[in-house]
Amino acid sequence: MKLAPFITAGLALLLTACGLGASIEAPKGDSYTAALQEADAARKAGELDVAVPLYGRALQANPEGMDAKLGLGQSYLALGAGEEAAAQFRDVLAKRAGDTVARRGLAAALITQGQPELAEKQAEQALASDGHDYRALNVLGVSLDMQGRHAEAQARYRQGLALAPDDVALHSNMGLSLAIVGQAREAIGQLLPLASGPKADGRIRQNLAFAYAMAGDFENSLQVSRRDLDEAHAQRQLSYFMRLEALSIQARSAEMRRNPQFFPQSSPTRGT
To answer: Is the dihedral of CA 24, 28, 30, 31 positive or negative?
Structure first.
């Protein structure tokens, strides 16, 4: 029997601004550097609706501006616009094949397009250039999880956490991966501190709700889901989680990978 997909608050937020990105006419005297600096500041502040047109303005001033293309790709990626993000990263790589930021960004963009095998290859290339790139390790882990290779994914997350012990995306993805394979208590240990921390978002909380359900703690699962979902959707999600909990690990993994709303959290492609 096909299970109904659950609804994640975090995914909805990522997709709300996909239509942004048309460049605006650059005012006279506006320089590439000034527009780029404004755009970078807006992106790092999470103001993606401001950042995207500013990157467009910078690229009007300098159509070959690689930093603007990287920033625009990162902004599209944060918005869930994987195809648009991939185009920017590929443009950079066509001119700078050794750019690990663009390589990692392309891997993350391929994940959002449901192409984990291709993403794995790109992430591996990024790591071949810099084996200490914990963000690339996170993206590689996500690509492996999305192929059902959870033990390999967790090994990559652990490598990343050894390099960046406080990275939220690595902890969140590790928790989700552990919950999928039935290590629910360990998953809760990864996710509970994050869910009450200052960087918590809907994706982290729904990962925690999933982990509680996989531990058979349906009451706490429902309570966490209610923080982001209305009652009807929280109940629907709990019902879905309960059915997943009753499946074998293999069947649970396969069902989640068929779910079009299963997108593990990716870390930014470039540090702030």
So the answer is: positive
